[in-house]
Amino acid sequence: MEAKCLFAIEALARAAAVLAAALAAWAAWYAGIGWFNGREGIEWLDGFQWGALPACAAIAVACAAAVARDDSPLRLVAFIAAATALSFAAFAGAREEIHTFHSYIFMPPAPAHLVWLALYWFCVSAGLIWLANWLLAPMRRRAALYLAAALALAPYFAYLTVSVFPAGRHDDIYNAIRLGYPVFWTAILVPAALRLGRKPAA
Asked: What burial class does residue 196 get, using C-beta atoms within 10 Å of its C-beta: 0-12 exposed, 13-18 middle, 19+ buried?
């Protein structure tokens, strides 16, 4: 009974930490939009969305909170730093490809842009699994599939969220991104995927 209580307390503590980090990531993105870009109309598309950097750091913290089995501060800091750098680099690259999509008004984007987006998606999935396996806890091989699915589902959940909580009369995916809904769901789904992919304790 005592072991079950300790397990439940640990699970609740991890869930609370992930939720707190997800809210921090969401707030960082939204604050960055207001500070660096502007919230009126499509002002937020002008310039780089620097709120993504602290948002990526908060997502890395959420992943560590969900998965870490070793309490070594050095390993936790190394994971958070490396995962932040990897996630931010993938965001910056994918952002350029999506901006290119946005410029194609009367013609479809070139296949090369889709290939680059898929490459960023693959790299961040494989990279986070490798970092978690190396620094946090042993991971199953299929964990990469869970993580890829989580990254693919985040925009869908964001679109559902903006349908319920729109930006005024606007409930499209662009306003979902502006409001930070994909950031929030990424910070929830990615740690959950990593947790599912973690091998049980021996």
From this structure: middle
